């Protein structure tokens, strides 16, 4: 059975799509947070308040890793950039785990193993 007709191919594909979608959503929200802070947006304004509240859970683990840099009303938040990088790496790791469950033929597996030895 080739990997294109394997019953595991469609769920793996859907799983990877879901992971990429969720990553994209989190990354966009974090990017909004970074830009709003960098441009000195009013934290009491509805939109910026919403973004800060929604993204807080994602940046909270990283808040004390770096000092926050204040420049004339703007905030350069390294922690948001770090969070974006870490979540991207986690998503790539999850995708790699999903792909390990993909069905492969014996000849295909042999070729991949030979390529790992090089």
Sequence-ordered SSE layout with sheet pairings:
Blueprint: H1 9-38, H2 46-59, E1 69-71, E2 74-76, H3 78-100, H4 106-117
Antiparallel strand pairs: 1-2
Task: Name its key features.
2 strands; mainly alpha
Q: Brief overview, please?
A:
With 118 residues, the protein is mainly alpha-helical. Helix content is 67%, strand content 5%. The chain has four helices and two strands; from the N terminus they run H-H-E-E-H-H.
Report what the structure shows:
This protein is mainly alpha-helical and 118 residues long. The chain has one domain (9-117). Helices cover 67% and strands 5% of the residues. It contains four helices and two strands, in the order H-H-E-E-H-H. The chain has a two-stranded antiparallel ribbon. Helix 1 runs antiparallel to helix 3. The longest helix is centred in the N-terminal third of the chain and has 30 residues, at 9-38. The two termini are 27 Å apart. The mean pLDDT is 88.
Which blocks of ≥5 consecutive residues have pLDDT under 50? Answer: none
Per DSSP E runs of 2 or more residues, the count of β-strands stands at: 2
Specify the helix fraction band.
Answer: 55-70%
The number of helical runs is: 4
Rg is 20 Å
**Distance between the first and last residues' Cα:** 27 Å
Structural class call reads mainly alpha
Number of domains: 1
What characterizes the major β-sheet? 2 strands, antiparallel
What general form does the structure show?
elongated
């Amino acid at each position: 059975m080739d990997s294109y007709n394997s019953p595991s191919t469609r769920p793996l594909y859907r799983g990877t799509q879901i992971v990429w979608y969720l990553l994209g959503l989190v990354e966009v929200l974090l990017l909004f947070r970074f830009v709003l802070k960098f441009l000195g947006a009013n934290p009491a304004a509805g939109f910026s308040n919403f973004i800060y509240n929604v993204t807080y859970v994602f940046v909270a683990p990283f808040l004390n890793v770096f000092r926050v840099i204040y420049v004339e009303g703007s905030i350069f938040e390294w922690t948001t950039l770090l969070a974006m990088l870490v979540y991207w790496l986690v998503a790539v790791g999850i995708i790699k785990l999903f792909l390990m469950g993909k069905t492969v033929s014996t000849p295909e597996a042999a070729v991949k193993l030979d390529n790992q030895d090089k």
